[in-house]
Amino acid sequence: MEKPLLDWYRKNKRLLPWRENKNPYEIWVSEIMCQQTRVEAVKPYFAKFLSALPTVKDLAQCPQERLLKLWEGLGYYNRVRNMQKAAQQIMELYQGELPADYEALKKLKGIGIYTAGAIASIAYGIAVPAVDGNVLRVISRVTEQQEDIAKPSVRRRIEQEIQKMIPKEYPGDYNQALMELGALVCVPNGQAKCGQCPLAGLCQANAHGTVDQLPVKSRAKPRRVEERTVLVIQDGERVAIRKRAPKGLLAGLYELPNTKQHLSSQEVLELVKNMGLVPLHIQSLGEAKHIFSHVEWHMVGYHIRIQQLEKTRQGNMIFTDSEEVQNKYAIPSAFDAFTGYLKGGDGAK
Ligand code: SF4
């Protein structure tokens, strides 16, 4: 499997900024970003992050609000918080260089088996596997694995199989070739392009016509649905935002004021009055949905124009201008459907 796979990879791999050199820090950043977003979408975030924080030291020392702002739009903010903790560990223990040691990498905050394997093999040429969802799919089809790949024991077995196969000279290319094959050719949902696959001749699922049934994967629990009402509150120039609690979903980020359940415009006006504000005009902004890993927000939005405030704070709300919201405060993409209304100060999107 090694030769056809590596030949295919060298001809077909995508040109990605983090593949241009083998900088361990850049590989680490790209791996964490790619765990949550499509590779194409990651490129601009990667460029922005690296230009703001080009070294482990910069990441370790970055003020948290700025860090979260740099991560804005990528979601899973705990990942970047953990990256910063790991960067601080690297400064303390390894003088700012990611250790060229698989076991030591796994001990860093937020670096699991997969990420440690990717950094160790790609940046340092250490022959260890890096098994992500793409690799699990490819291997379970090639070997016609009938067990549930969501089980840790099955994943471990696949890692052990790759450990035996991985070439000592090219572990990074080998791992990336498996990932790339899963991303471009051995794709899910009945779309596998077996006719273009370098492994077609030895693939058991291809031989037995079971490609569409593999991998076997248990269904995740259904997500909880939460109804919310989101408020775009403006007093002329300024808009209201507030900081979320330090723990739980979207911890410590900024948000548009919102409340559980779908409220009518009358109920929203009452709510705004109870906040100590004087509403002048209300307009519905329609519905939106945001999906997190375990919960879905089904939202309705309202734009509320209020009487001019003297203060910049009211209760737990901060009143600030839309430019400052854009440049300074990290607002999660869950609110994307409504943050467009912050521009212009007149509720226009
Ligand atoms: S032959 Fe088809 S199922 Fe087998 S590895 Fe290639 S793309 Fe995947």
Can you put this structure into words, describing what you see?
With 349 residues, the protein is an alpha+beta fold. It folds into 2 domains: 2-213, Orthogonal Bundle (Endonuclease III, domain 1); 224-345, Nucleoside Triphosphate Pyrophosphohydrolase, CATH 3.90.79.10. Helix content is 43%, strand content 16%. Strands 1, 2, 3, 4, 5, 6, 7 and 8 form an 8-stranded mixed β-sheet that branches. Helix 8 (113-124) packs across helix 11 (171-184) and helix 9 (133-142) packs across helix 11. The longest helix is centred in the first third of the chain and has 18 residues, at 77-94. The relative contact order is 0.11. Residues 345-349 have low confidence and may be disordered. The structure holds iron/sulfur cluster. The site of iron/sulfur cluster (SF4) has 15 residues, from helix 9 and helix 12.
Q: What is the distance, rounded to the nearest whole angstrom, between the alpha carbons of the first and last residues?
A: 53 Å
Write down the overall mean pLDDT: 93
Under the CATH scheme, the architecture of the largest domain is: Orthogonal Bundle
Poorly predicted spans: 345-349
Name of the CATH homologous superfamily of the largest domain: Hypothetical protein, domain 2
Sheet with the most strands, sense and barrel status: 8 strands, mixed
Helix and strand run? HHHHHHHHHHHHEEEEHEEEEHH
Output the number of helix runs: 15
Oligomer: single chain
What's the helical proportion of residues?
Answer: 40-55%
Shape category:
globular
Query: Which percent band covers the strand fraction?
Result: 15-25%
| Structural class by SSE content | alpha+beta
Number of strands: 8
Q: Give me the Rg, rounded.
A: 24 Å
User: What count of structural domains?
Assistant: 2
The CATH topology of the largest domain corresponds to Endonuclease III, domain 1
